[in-house]
Amino acid sequence: MNTRSIRFQLISRFAALLLLVMLGFGAYTYWSVRGYVVDVIGISLIHRAQQITQTLLGNILPVDEQSISREIETSYAPELNDRFIRITRGDGSVLYCSREPNDRSFSPTKVPYARVKITAPQIREEPLPNEERMLIAAVPYSSQQGSYLVEAGASLSGSHRVLHALLWTLAAGLLVIMGLTIFGGWVLIKRALTPVRNIMLAAQDITLRHLRRRLPVPNTGDEIASLSVVLNQMIARLDDSFQNTNRFTADASHELRTPLTIMRGELEAIIARRDLSQEIRAALASLLEEVERLVRIVERLFALSRLDTGEAQIERIPVDLGRLAETTVEQMCLLAEEKHISLKCEMNERVEVEGDRARLKQVIVNLLDNAIKYTPDGGAIALSVRAQNGTAFLEVADTGPGILDAALPHVFERFYRADGVRSRDVDGAGLGLSIVQSICAAHGGSVSVKNNHPSGCCVTVGLPRA
User: Fold this and answer.
1) Can you tell me the distance from the alpha carbon of 275 to that of 231, in angstroms, rounded to the nearest whole number?
2) How far apart are CA 85 and CA 311, in angstroms?
3) What are the pLDDT digits (tens) for 336-348?
4) Does the predicted model carry a pTM greater than 0.70?
5) Domains detected in the chain
């Protein structure tokens, strides 16, 4: 899972915010219900204690333990109702104390007495030895018979069980709500990011050959739509710039071809004369060699511009890539033999692709030419053709010095020549691999290069099988 993605950040932050809100709501609900339950029980106990003072202590004369006990047992039945009642005289002696309740939740004899003198009705919580708590309402009463303190209490164990059940319900509800929220948020965010995904997929299809394509603009009127419009405007500017560059390259290459051809013809005619001195003939030969080099560069630039603009006609016929590689290797053997380089072709099966035979042969020629240039005398070059998962692979591996790691990402750039050992004393303009890449792209394929260990490099061309 990508924790840095927008989807993860939105879901996690929304879930964290919702969790805080739900925890706050749960805490508020729990303490509100607890306070309400305690208040209800307290009011009930106060009411009961006041009833005892009004109906018993004020009406039963004389106030004695037996009559009070009998009336309380008859009217209130504290043991049956799991309640606590205690009446204390002003001198601290106990006039009446209820017996142990049926639920055995507390022992009346262990209920603490009030720690201060009570002059007005009040409610207090008292801890019990069995880690329970009791809510006690105390109401003072004074008459001619004397002063009394009536205490009515109830254990909070039942209320605590209800509150614990409420707490578990809130926790379970929180988990369910969080799960539904995360799932629903993931679905909603996925739908909300669908326009972004569509823009991304469309952007992946926009290459140098398809700069006239544009990104979809969602009909939302929000920032995503504005971003798509701005990107389309940027692509349009890039398209104009690229078209102007290609047009200049094509025009310049086309215009240079004629004068260079004339220069080459004139130089060849002059060199053919017999009245030239050896020094002049050598100078003219060097000049002719440079003109030939310029002609090759111009021809390659012209081919690249046509490939980039799609003007070059690419045939779509079945081509036996293995057989094409084999015949090309046979034709390139003379160049390899001059440097005593071993050149061999390996293939295990018939591999057929659909494309332009001449262009594909140009790919193989350029790769072999590069390999021969950079492989030292006595080295070896291996060309292999294989198929895997619907793709035809053509690999050219040499035993040369390899390519500097820093130069690997740039080898397909035009006119790029590394400063390492592969470029020393080697003729070339840095356009061969650029042409290979353009031809492969025109056939829906790709090309990559990597260093072999301990020496040499390997160029791999991948093309769709026919």
Assistant:
1) 66
2) 105
3) 888 888 988 888 7
4) no
5) 6-162 (3.30.450.20), 223-309 (1.10.287.130), 317-464 (3.30.565.10)
